[in-house]
Amino acid sequence: MPVYERGYRHFEGERSLRLLRFVPIAANGVRLAMRSKLFLFLVAFPSHISLIVGAVIAYLFFQQLPLMMQQRGMSPAEMTQASFLFSSAQTQVGPLLYWTIQSVQAGLWIPVIGGLLAGRLIAADAQANALEVYFARPITRLDYALGKFFTAFGFLLYVTLVPPVGAWGVACLFAPNASYFHASKSMAFGLVVNALLISGVSATLMLGVSSASKKPRFASALFVGLMIFSHVASQILLEAIGKPDVYLVSITNNFLIVGYRLVSETVVGQIIQEGVDLPPREHALFVLGGIVLVSIVLFARRLRAVEVVR
Amino acid sequence: MIDAAAAVLAPPAPSVVRPRPAGLLRGALRVAAFDLKRSARSFRAFVLLLFGALPAVLVGMRDVLFDVPDEEFRAGAVFFHFVFFMATMQFFLLFCSVFLGASAFSEEVEDQTLVYLFTRPLRRASVFLGKLWSATVLGSAILTVTTLAMWAMRGGRFGAGSAENVPATAAQALQCCGLLTLGCAAYSAVFAAIGTFLKKPLLVGILVAFGWEVVVSNIPGVIPNVTVMYYLRSIFASIYGRADLPRPVVQVFLRGPNFDTAGDAILVVAGVAVVGAAIGAWIVSHREYVLNRAE
Amino acid sequence: MSGAVVSGAPLVEASGLSKWYGQVVGLNDVTVTVGRGVTGLLGPNGAGKSTFLRLVSGQIIPSRGTIRVLGERVFGNARLFTRLGVCPETDAFYESMTGLDFARAMLRLAGFAREEADRRARAAIARVGLDPDLKKKIAAYSKGMRQRLKLAQALAPEPEALVLDEPLNGLDPVGRAAMVALIRDCGQRGISVLVSSHILHEVEAMTDQILLIHQGKLLAEGKIREIRELLDRHPHHVRVACSEPRRLASRLAAHADVVRLAFEADGATLVVETTKPDEFYSRLPKILRQDAISLASLESTDDGLEAVFRYLVSA
Predict the structure, then answer these.
(1) Treating both helix axes as pointing N-terminal to C-terminal, what angle do B262-286 and B170-195 enclose, rounded to 10 degrees?
(2) Which residues on chain C are in Cβ contact (under 8 Å) with A307?
(3) Do C27 and C67 belong together in one domain?
């Protein structure tokens, strides 16, 4: 039957690119998450404490650098070498400091921020029966998954990238000249790559966990439980057995193992000197790959517009 | 069928006999029985059981998969207590209590099913207490089952190994279960009370459990006295005596004073459980809950 | 007085009852006595019906004023719920249970013995048209089944009074008719019912006693007949689309009950305002036939509840 209503027109405007259909979903997810004052507070303030600590350490170090050079009989012309040479020591402004900051962010704030977010990703949509609404639009499950992935990825990347790279940036500003920046920029690149890895794997795990239940609080608890429990189990095994392979049991430790190499070779050397042996990076990557695979399989099986109740 | 139904639902006679409204405790028992029947068969109970089974698997597999270098651990004498202390008491108890306790009452608000409970002839405090007791019983049951499984496998090789040198007697294992039950009651009461007035009790519960309880209880001095975990450790020490404890566990106890007997510690923990339950019951009795779907 | 059960007391006695949620006023100074029998609570969406029913069922506390149900105080009064059954508006259940399990569990919570709870649950579920032996979980129920189950759990303990918040939501026309008949039947059996809806003719089928609520205020209370008379005194608007609206207008203008005539922008539709709609409707076909005017459509904008409210609000 022809449609005579004059107000009706076929849409002749521009549609978004096929590849970008996940963007509104991600943007909406970010917007909704930021409505929570508690979440906003946690992301904005406590998660930057390590950045402030790193900045203070950098300030104190570069304040004392001329004195340290004088004590070692170095001339002012050697300041470039001195700033990076001293910063390789354990307590100074070097790769170990930034890697420690990133480790703290991954170990503490990933479970907290991730725990808050995990319930909001898919479980909340399933609880509100919003999945039917989503899939009544011209989007695929992949678009939906990418949208939710980037919602989580964005926040996690922020808390794992901004504090360590921010602290490094501040140190570059406090450094006497640009040589500190040039000498350490490869390390900064390592921080960025490690942050991407941590955020990517954590966001995928959150997707898998969030699709496992229609109850947001259960999804949150499951994510936090997995992160913390794996770490506790690793600590117990380490205490009882002492073998380095048990580090791989902890999800967080896998991030740290990969991060060692990415951030700086020097860091690995230092840790080894203290008597702590680490499993090979490839083993950690294998474990993280397994986590991603299991999460994707779980998500693919569980995500349905309509749940069939038997 | 409709005629038979109509006959049953005939107009009430002038002196219709209806059940009297239940008292506080009887009403709470009714709610607890109702809730336990549902939650014992739920997916989350299964997941919690899986989490709790992992320490038992660790204990049972220790000499199958792991070459335990430490003489003290290899003797099998202490692995049970060690895993119990580190994994079950300091992590799994908290995790179970947070998850079950924080959602005990708040879940009814979030799912908007609270109206059905509040429109029965039950006191509002009974509804809260019943949900709390159900969470405590379920949590204690899961903790007890997993602890006894761990104890059964303490000899290694999934229990087939020799348990002769393991000083964890059956009495001590049961005392450990009692310790967990007491801890679960206290923590669940605290987190359930939090759940009566906060929209996100699970997050606050996690921060309290793993932030406050774990971190503060490891600070030297008298500060740990304000945590429940401190008293639970005291009870644990009295179950075994320091001589039998593994080295890393002893280090924890060296940090601060302990009670000589478990009696005082038990009183404190029980007191926390009672006070938490009382506060939660009072809040629920006086607060209104407008049931809208939370964001 | 606070502890006594007053037999024969009205269903609801509210005095100066107000409820606000922060800045939003849900109910504003409502004073009303709802007697025994079936009473309809009418109002558009957002009028305050659910707020009033939540106050009646003790789910929320009044911000001001007092309320008594069956002569007893409401909030925190467990004894009241031995006499009162509530069917809430929210579509929420323990989804993993079957319908019978749910109804039975609610009766067990009310203190009925196991066998009695089973018997009553089966009877109530059958009464609302569901199959008591259905093994399906509530999560798999349709909207209509869920609505019926809500009513069943309220009916099962045979209360003295029922509070039903939008019980017809989600039901198909056959289901709605059955539910209306059930509610009417409850009234005839001596159960007092306070039922809310925003559809006038459905409430008309259940009862002749109604309360009208609008923007948190009680607009009117009384018999439907009286409300209808109010409506009839108010000029009635009729939109007539025809082939010759101007000729029709000139014919209608001769009659005293037609107080206003207006033409719509399309030029083919005439809006008539009449004080005697019954006479108008019986006169119109004759005029159309006599003058050979083709009728395209005929629509009255004043038959609904909104018209009643518009009139009452403006009055």
Answers:
(1) 30
(2) 139
(3) yes
From CA C303, how far away is CA C284, in angstroms rounded? 18
C145 neighbourhood in chain A, CB within 8 Å: none
> Are C34 and C75 part of one and the same domain?
yes
SS3 call for A252: helix
- Taking contacts as CB-CB distances below 8 angstroms, the residues of chain C near B289 are 59
Q: Rg of chain C's alpha carbons, rounded to an integer? A: 24
Q: Is A224 a domain residue? A: yes
| CA distance between the termini of chain C | 39
User: Domain total for chain A?
Assistant: 1
C100 with C185, same domain? yes
Domain residue limits, chain B: 22-286
ipTM field: 0.83
Disruptive mutation site among A4, A129, A304, A309 for chain C (greatest number of C CBs within 10 Å): A309
Is residue B67 scored above 90 in pLDDT?
no
Q: End of a domain among C183, C198, C222?
A: C222
Inter-chain residue contact B119 with C96, CB threshold 8 Å: no
- Do C310 and C179 sit in the same domain of this protein? no
Angle at alpha carbon of residue C163, lines to C137 and C124, rounded to 5°: 40
Residues in B closer than 8 angstroms to C86, CB to CB, are 115, 119
Task: Report the residue of chain A nearest B83, measured CA to CA.
Answer: A236
B70 contacts in chain A (CB < 8 Å):
240, 242
Q: Give the minimum alpha-carbon distance from B8 to chain C in angstroms, rounded to a whole number.
A: 7
Contacts of C2 (CB under 8 A, 6+ apart): C73
Q: Does B116 touch chain A (CB under 8 A)?
A: no
Q: Which domain holds residue C81?
A: 12-222
Residue finishing a domain among C222, C244, C261:
C222
Scanning every residue of chain A, which has its alpha carbon at the shortest distance from the alpha carbon of C91?
Answer: A128
Residue range A119-153, pLDDT digits in tens: 888 888 888 888 888 887 777 888 899 999 999 99
Residue with tokens 């080894």: A272
- What would the two tokens of residue A67 be? 């004195």
* C7: in domain: no
Search chain C and give the residue with CA nearest B23.
C78
Chain A closest-CA separation from residue C90 CA (Å):
13
Cα separation, A248 vs A244, in Å, equals 8
Nearest chain C residue to B107 by CA distance is: C94
- Containing H/E element for B90? none
Domain assignment present for A310? no
Among B131, B100, B284, smallest CA distance to B209 is for B100
CA of A11: how far to CAs of A7, A8, A14, A20, A138, in Å?
A: 12, 9, 8, 19, 14
- Claim to verify: residue C133 and residue C38 sit in the same structural domain: yes
Residue A81: the pLDDT is: 66
Tell me which chain B residues have a C-beta less than 8 angstroms from the C-beta of A213: 43
Say if CB A294 and CB A202 are below 8 A apart: no
Q: What is the CATH number of the domain that holds C255?
A: 3.30.70.100
Tens digit of each residue's pLDDT (9 = 90 or more) over B10-56: 444 444 567 888 899 999 999 999 999 999 988 889 988 988 888 77
- Please tell me if residue A220 touches chain B, with a CB cutoff of 8 Å: yes
Tell me the nearest-neighbour CA distance from C169 into chain A, angstroms: 18
Asked if the structure places residue C3 within a domain, the reply is no
The string of pLDDT tens digits covering residues A270-296 is 555 555 677 888 899 999 999 999 999
In a domain, A11, yes or no: no
**B71: nearest CA in chain A?**
A240
List chain C residues with pLDDT less than 50: 1-6
User: How much is the pLDDT for C114?
Assistant: 94
Q: The domain containing residue A249 runs over which residues?
A: 21-65+73-302
Chain C contact for A306 (CB, 8 A cutoff): no
pLDDT of residue A196: 94
Asked if C242 and C166 sit in the same domain, the reply is no
Do C73 and C178 lie in a common domain?
Answer: yes
The CATH number given to whatever domain includes residue C183 is: 3.40.50.300
